[in-house]
Design a protein that fits this description.
Strand 2, helix 2 (56-80) and strand 3 (85-91) form a beta-alpha-beta unit. This protein is α/β, with parallel strands linked by helices. Helix 3 packs across helix 5 (129-136). The protein is globular. It starts with 5 loop residues before the first strand and ends with a helix. It has helices at 15-31, 56-80, 95-105, 120-126, 129-136, 147-157; strands spanning 6-10, 34-41, 85-91, 110-115, 141-145.
């Protein structure tokens, strides 16, 4: 059985990615591996209607700042539970390729990623970040089908 020294967990702050993070954290603890939390901010974000095009730079900066704050909090909680955790933010319009680039750049030996359970025409039209990571990654990828976990999280929050 091979061992892992660095596990990458892409985080989009959704319930499925949180569920996949729990699995990644469990594996990191089991293997005494470092856990790298990665969030990808779009290079050209879709501006909400309330944001002027003249304020695009400030909006982009706020996306990075918000993500950095949330990731730092998540990493701190993991560290408090005895897991070596770091975080980083990537910027790209091709989220899957940026996840793979981050894995390569940070010498990750496992990616633990959630699938949001898209199927049919929606998945065909919009594609799947998880599916592309699975196809293109040079390191093993553990895919967590977390639709049920996301539904449970929504119902418990209501």
């Amino acid at each position: 059985m091979s061992t892992f020294t660095k596990i990458l967990s892409p985080i989009d702050f959704s319930a499925p990615s949180q569920s996949a993070l729990e699995t990644a954290a469990s594996l990191a603890k089991q293997f005494n591996a470092e856990l790298l939390l990665v969030h990808i901010v779009p290079a050209i974000p879709d501006l909400p209607s309330s944001v002027s095009m003249l304020k695009e730079g400030q909006y982009d900066e706020s996306l990075h700042t918000d993500a950095a704050t949330r990731l730092a909090e998540m990493a701190l909680k993991l560290k408090q539970s005895g897991i070596k955790a770091e975080s980083t933010i990537g910027t790209a319009n091709d989220t899957a390729m940026e996840i793979i680039r981050q894995a390569d750049e940070n010498d990750a030996d496992l990616i633990v990623i959630a699938t949001h359970g898209l199927s049919g025409l929606h998945a065909l039209v919009f594609g799947s970040v998880t599916e592309k990571v699975l196809r293109e990654s040079h390191v093993p990828v553990l895919v967590m089908h977390t639709t049920k976990a996301a539904e449970e999280a929504k119902s418990s929050a209501a």
